[in-house]
Amino acid sequence: MYINRTVFSEEHEAYRDTVARFMDEELVPSHAQWEKEGIVPREAWKKAGDVGILLPAIPDKYGAPGGDRLFSSIVIEEQAKRGLSGPGFTLHSDIVAPYILAYGTEEQKQAFLPKMAAGEMIGAIAMTEPGTGSDLQSVKTTAIREGDEYVINGQKTFITNGINSDLVILVTKTAPDLGAKGISLILVEATREGFTKGRNLDKIGMKAQDTAELFFDNVRVPVTNLLGKEGTGFYMLMQELAWERMQIAIGGIASAESIIEETATYTKERKVFGQPIAGFQNTRFKLAELKTQVQIGRVFVDKCLELIMKKELDASTAAMAKMWCSDLNCKVIDECLQLHGGYGYMWEYRVARAYADARVSRIYGGSNEIMKELVARTFD
Ligand SMILES: Cc1cc2nc3c(=O)[nH]c(=O)nc-3n(C[C@H](O)[C@H](O)[C@H](O)COP(=O)(O)OP(=O)(O)OC[C@H]3O[C@@H](n4cnc5c(N)ncnc54)[C@H](O)[C@@H]3O)c2cc1C
To answer: How many structural domains is the chain composed of?
Structure first.
């Protein structure tokens, strides 16, 4: 038993039931196959759109469920609990769509959000380049204005939903000589000439999620594809960082809780030296320590969720949550894998896949070293 959670209303919990049922029926049975294929098929996205799992926190006038960020948190939690690391729903729904909602023109919102909510259009965001990850200001991709068009040249890598993507928010320099002030966000449809998708990258985990290189070779888009104002891209990217980082924290705690539960069950069933391994003091103490730490993390995450709902969560607190929860999840999974013995190292066991899936959470969304920098700056 964990302490009762108080952040969600009855309406949220009803939504959780719908999400859970959908995932159990439509995603869980196929996930292992998608891991082999390296991608989640578009039909699964459309089904998710049909039941209202995509864009949970986008207003219903755009064909979306019209909920709040707690609805989004529920999708993240239920996915993490089941180890469904393939569908890139969260990036699509809670990173890409919010930029369009916040900074798009009404025309852009109407063109993209309803299709994204229906799962007919899959979104990605392309910041990282082969030479630039943490240091975003140094991106080299350029978008040079020629009349009523931008001409885009450059390369991106590690892009989630990259292969499936129909629409990419591209982080680019419209003023290449400037640093942060030269950055703009441009919406690029995958159908544009000169835009090509490279390899589906071979990762150590999150095997069912497509992660790709993207290439832009004299890609022309109309200036109406600019998101927000020229030169304000970096500012826009900074605005939603707290929520984006919380998404990793929320998934991390939900994953850790579920792995502990599964491990507790496993240790009761597995007998060694004539007794269940759950009977050894080491097992009991280890699970007790992990559960205690996860409970502490859970309370912190729920407090952050309350602050999100009040629009009061600051960037450094979100950085703490991202860092702490991703580190904790990796630690919990590692200890639980140990309690599984050799079976924990076998891909067919949930704990083995979780081990591989979780590692990236300490790297992406801003590495945990960058999170420490952000927290350290509060002392400056
Ligand atoms: C599976 C996956 C999915 C991803 N999805 C996306 C996506 O959808 N869109 C996208 O744009 N990007 C995506 N990324 C990229 C991800 O955001 C970057 O990998 C991440 O920001 C780190 O950048 P980097 O890989 O270039 O590492 P680097 O920036 O080269 O960092 C290397 C090491 O140096 C450390 N370091 C860097 N700067 C500092 C500093 N100032 N102080 C101390 N240490 C520092 C880092 O913490 C890290 O340990 C994804 C990556 C992966 C692996």
So the answer is: 3
Query: How far does the centroid of ligand 1 lie from the alpha carbon of residue 274, in Å?
Result: 47
Domain residue limits at 248: 240-379
DSSP tag of 220: E
Helix (H, G, I), strand (E, B) or coil at 210: coil
Using the mean position of ligand 1's atoms as its centre, give its distance from the Cα of residue 50 in Å.
34
53 in a structural domain: yes
- In the beta sheet, which residues pair with residue 196? 215
Q: Is the Cβ atom of 96 under 6 angstroms away from ligand 1?
A: no
What are the angstrom distances between the C-alpha of 40 and each of 85, 164, 314?
10, 8, 34
In tens, the pLDDT along 166-213 reads: 999 999 999 999 999 999 999 999 999 999 999 999 999 999 999 999
- pLDDT per residue over 141-163, tens digit each? 999 999 999 999 999 999 999 99
Alpha carbons 163 and 179: distance in angstroms, whole number: 29
Instruction: Give residue-wise pLDDT tens across range 334-363.
Output: 999 999 999 999 999 999 999 999 999 999
* Same-domain pairing of 267 and 368: yes
Q: In sequence order, which residues have a C-beta less than 8 Å from that of residue 238 and are 6 or more positions away?
A: 315
**Residue 166 burial by CB count (10 A; 0-12/13-18/19+): exposed, middle or buried?**
middle
Among 202, 231, 260, where does a domain finish?
Answer: 231
Q: Is 318 helix (H, G, I), strand (E, B) or coil?
A: helix
Cross-strand pairs, 211: 160
- Residue 312 annotated to the active site: no
